[in-house]
Design a protein that fits this description.
It is a single chain. This protein is mostly beta strands and 455 residues long. The protein has two domains: 27-169, Immunoglobulin-like; 196-450, Jelly Rolls (Sandwich), CATH 2.60.120. Helices cover 5% and strands 41% of the residues. The protein contains three helices and 32 strands. It has helices at residues 27-31, 209-213, 431-443, and strands at residues 34-40, 46-47, 49-50, 52-58, 64-65, 69-75, 81-88, 95-101, 107-113, 117-118, 127-133, 139-140, 154-155, 159-163, 166-169, 196-199, 216-218, 231-232, 237-238, 244-250, 258-264, 272-280, 293-300, 313-319, 330-340, 345-353, 359-368, 371-376, 379-385, 395-402, 412-425, 448-450. Strands 16, 19, 20, 22, 27, 28, 29, 31 and 32 form a nine-stranded antiparallel beta sheet that branches. Strands 17, 18, 21, 23, 24, 25, 26 and 30 form an eight-stranded mixed beta sheet that branches. Strands 1, 3, 4, 7, 11 and 13 form a six-stranded antiparallel beta sheet that branches. The radius of gyration is 23 Å and the shape is globular. The two termini are 24 Å apart.
């Protein structure tokens, strides 16, 4: 969230039935193994919010990793909805939901899991879910394909379950949305967007005049996010070997804390494809470890006032040591509608993975047709949309900052590096094609290019 002051996250414990095991289900085995039960706590034909309660059963002989499972609840109509988890034995913090448009006016709620595993012969127990219209108007749910009025659990095949992308339970309905057009065109094809930005970061240092000439700002102004009273210092920004390098450090005090940021000076970016090759790190380059540091690649619009509806933000954020209630390393993809700082209120949706992402990663964000798709190393990491779609032009930024201070003695320095930045305006570019274009630009000796028009 990068210019905000916190994040609203729930953290609930996992049930003991979700246990680790050495056996992992293959898609073929899982297809014979899972079973879904459904009931509702809001059975009326019209309602202010739908309340599907679910239980996922593993009737097979092998453990199923829950991050391989997607549950689809099918709806009629194209209204904008919001998803919430009221309570779950496995913990609402492990459950996420997003609405995916189908061809025509229909859609489905796709429920996924960030962690956990389901042992043979066990079930998740209650997952008490709900969704409601963004404008809080009542709606008819009796015409939704997946709706049933029963208030006691029963097997329900009108809700589909996918494991590793393969249908494992239920009877889907509707037609999937059109895939990205021409996802793997000939890499020699010229860009088809309305302008390109590419930077190979071949600068001599943070005071290189070409940074300003090419539309970059190295931050020196005070303020959030991060530790109040910390310094944003251009001295921590360098470009060794053509790599944007952010070195942020702290000695455990606000006065001794240095945070770093590089931002485009112009807000001229909204729809299209954003890409960067970023190196995250789990440990400091010097000093004791343990700080809650945030390493980022994101786009953002300024917040003019609390809950500004024109605010927008699309984030990759890596927390190598946790923070915001998380105990360990975690990567977030977060899409923002708006927020207010005091009292804190966040209107966003996020997808996360709890794992180490130390090392180099190719990060891509596609913004088109009401959806934002986040890719990590060519793998679809998150798919967001609806009210979180950006309405106004944004800056592109990289920064590294501290959520809080852990009080350890001695100075410690954390490093984030960026190999390149690429943007194609108003064009969806597949991750593999981004790589081909970067290679072609470098082969042509292009260190910088900006044909994106100013607003």
């Amino acid at each position: 969230m990068s210019r905000n002051f916190g994040k609203l996250l729930l953290s609930l414990g996992l049930s003991s039935v979700l246990v680790g095991a050495t056996l992992v289900a293959t898609p073929a085995a899982a297809a014979q193994a899972v079973r879904l039960q459904y009931r509702t706590s809001a059975p009326g034909a019209t309602t202010a919010q739908a309340e599907p309660w679910l239980r996922l059963h593993n009737d097979g002989t092998t453990t199923i990793p829950l991050n391989q499972v997607k549950i689809r609840y099918y709806l009629t109509g194209a209204e904008t909805y919001r998803f919430a988890c009221s309570w779950a034995v496995i913990g609402c913090a492990t459950i996420n939901g997003q609405f995916v448009r189908q061809q025509g006016n229909d859609q489905y709620l796709e429920v996924g899991f960030s962690s956990g595993s389901l042992a043979s012969g066990q079930n998740t127990s209650d997952m008490q879910l709900r969704f409601y219209r963004a404008d809080w108007q009542t709606f008819t749910q009796s015409d939704d394909y997946s709706y049933g009025s029963q208030t006691s659990y029963a097997d329900w095949d009108k809700i589909a379950v996918y494991v590793n992308g393969q249908l494992a339970w239920g009877k889907p309905t509707g037609t999937e949305p059109d895939p990205d057009p021409d996802p793997d065109p000939d890499p020699t094809d010229p860009p088809g967007g309305a302008g390109e930005l590419f930077d190979d970061f071949t600068y001599t240092g943070s005071s290189d005049p070409r940074l300003t000439q090419r539309g970059w700002t190295v931050r020196s102004s005070s303020g959030g996010p991060g530790v109040p009273g910390a310094t944003w210092s251009p001295a921590g920004v360098s470009f060794p070997g053509g790599l944007l390098t952010l070195d942020s450090s702290t000695n455990g005090t606000a006065a001794g804390t240095v945070q770093t940021e590089l931002s485009t000076a112009s807000r001229k970016f909204r729809e299209g494809t954003y890409a960067a090759r970023v190196r995250f790190s789990d440990a400091p380059t010097s000093g004791p470890d343990g700080e809650h540091v945030v390493q980022t690649f994101f786009t953002i619009t300024p917040l003019r006032y609390n809950l500004d509806p024109d605010y927008g933000e699309l984030d990759f954020e890596y927390l190598p040591n946790g923070g915001w209630g998380e105990p360990g390393n975690i990567l977030y993809a977060t899409s923002w509608e708006t927020y207010q700082a005091e009292p804190w209120q966040a209107v966003n949706t996020h997808t996360e993975e709890r794992a180490s992402f130390a090392g180099w990663h190719d990060l891509v964000i596609q913004v088109s047709g009401g959806r934002m798709k986040y890719y990590v190393d060519g793998r679809l990491f998150a798919d967001h949309g609806d009210i979180y779609y950006p309405e106004t032009p944004m800056w592109i930024m990289f920064n590294q900052w501290f959520i809080d201070l852990q009080g350890a003695s001695g100075t410690r320095t954390y490093r984030q590096q960026v190999d390149y930045l690429y943007h194609s305006k108003n064009e969806v570019v597949a991750p593999s094609v981004v790589t081909s274009r970067i290679n072609a630009l470098r082969a042509a000796g292009t260190a910088f290019k900006d044909t994106v028009p100013n607003p």
